[in-house]
User: What shape does this take?
Amino acid sequence: MQPPPRRRYGRRPTYNDSSHNADGSNKWTFAVGGGFTIPVGVSHQDLVPSWKLQVGGGRNFNKTFGLLLQFDYDNFAFQRSTLKAQQALYSTIDPLDSFAGLDGSSHVWSFTLDPIANFYTSDTAGAYVIGGLGFYHKTADFTLPGTGVYCDYYGYCYQYNANYTIDNYTSNAFGVNAGVGFTYKLSRFGAEKLYTEARYVWNDNQPRPFSLANNNLYPANSKRTSYIPITVGIRW
Assistant: This one.
């Protein structure tokens, strides 16, 4: 007897719905994470590492390529030498006031559009490169310690210690970023992945000179900015 003819099978099944691409990957991706920032180059002269936050989402075109829209908030503290120099400057301009305890912080928030390419993928691990460009808003705040008063609904008032801002600077710029990241899938049957990544960020801030007339007592805020954010989070 002749064996029955072998059944013909087609290619891999394709997905055709609003949530998946033809290769089975999710069309939409979201991420949230946090970590720390490391100022480098000229920025390291005035700033020291601090914390960061990141949220984003975007479109996967297939298992390899995607496009993310991200919001990042990168915080920095000031170098001790920066605070000492600024305190001396304020004291020279206004010798009748006390600037003891001067402190402050700087931060950059940004919206960026970032292509992502996965160059390694296994059942649990992955690696990718990412980079893009966007809008960066940089702020510097100098503060002094003070005392505030809070009164509750019943009329009881309390004193508390709080810092208040005495000087503030902002600078807007376009910038670019690029880096590499790694992922670890929490379950072979789920979409959630832990990720960790490092990027280099460069902002094209336009320098502004020191000026008493224009109240620009901290021109370093408008210098070109560069830093390395390290982020750990979850992507799904």
